[in-house]
Amino acid sequence: MSKLQDLSNAGTAVWLDFVDRKFLEQGGLKKLVDEDGLTGVTSNPTIFEKAMGAGDAYDAGFAEFDKASPGAEPMDRYESQAIKDIQAACDTLRPVYDRLDSKDGYVSLEVSPYLALKGPETAEEAERLWQAVDRPNLMIKIPGTDDGVRAIRDTIAKGINVNVTLLFGVEAYKAVAYAYVEGLEERVSKDMPIDRIASVASFFVSRIDSKIDDAIDAGKGGDEAKALKGKVAIANAKLAYAWYQEFIASDRWQKLAAKGAQPQRLLWASTGTKNPDYPDTLYVDQLIGPDTVNTMPPKTMDAFRDHGTVAQTLTEGVDEARHVIEEQARLGLDLDGVTKTLVEEGVASFSKSFDDLMKVIGEKQPANA
After folding, report:
1. Model confidence pTM above 0.85
2. Fewer Cβ atoms within 10 A, N terminus or C terminus of the chain?
3. Which of 104, 176, 183 shows the shortest CA–CA distance to 136?
4. What letter does residue 115 receive in the DSSP assignment?
5. Among 3, 141, 231, 238, which one carries the catalytic annotation?
6. Cα dist. 188→67, 137, 253 in Å?
7. Pairing relation of β-strands 40-42 and 265-269?
8. Buried b / exposed e along 281-317 (16+ C-beta atoms within 10 A)
9. pLDDT of 310-332, one tens digit each?
10. Known catalytic residue: 141?
């Protein structure tokens, strides 16, 4: 049995943070489903920018679309191909979705990053993309910004699955968890079903250590802070999971669970290590526990399959994790400030990828279009 299957059996579902047309057409995704127990796929603007900008895999698709819709805008050309990839991935994972009775088997498609700070427009785009893809195992990715919280609530209330992305701080995570619950509660108040609605809260990990470690290397916190290198991100994630465990035990959640509600699983994102001094499976090995997801880039997935370690690590060392978070605050490493900066940088980075993607697609436009 693959170590990735062992990871799933330990409670952490294995998702792939990658989409590419040739990979889909050549059966790469199906192979991961069959051999490694893969149960999900995530995409984002950066992934599509790399996929569509490299090689000629999408040329035929663009040509077909251009023939039917001459003179279309780059955004429409992008969506025509992204939706095809997402539909293909959803179809590959549909047997997983059916076998697990809608508990997993999802593929995520992100709303335009240009809307990250526009809540109402985000909710409208989520519904539009949901209808365009037309697959029950689709998740719409919505950034967990302050403006995104209302959009998350409204989108769940419409019965649309949501992957909340760009979460770094525990307080931001709590806000989107409550938004999920409020969306479900609205449906219950209208006697609408909630048992087949799914959501994940994508909590980004490695980027936190990159920021904190850089500050420590620059002398912030003095010599004492050096002991915290490579520890803050995992501690932060463990405290988020500890809160999740408390919340699903609450009366408020249990009322929804009694009606078939699925818990909003924490999804560990940005799990490829940025620091070569750290083990390449660090952010997988240390975050294993029930009702979680780890979405990995192919390189991290290969590494874990080869030498990952499966153990129930997420609930271990929680007191130590609290101590790490207290120490970083005492030493002025400013995790709260770091997480806010990372959200801003994440929105900007995805917008930049989208800009680059639109430019690449524009360059692939037929000369007579």
Report:
1. yes
2. N
3. 104
4. G
5. 141
6. 46, 21, 13
7. unpaired
8. bbbbbbbbbebbbbbbbeebbebbbeebebeebbeeb
9. 999 999 999 999 999 999 999 99
10. yes
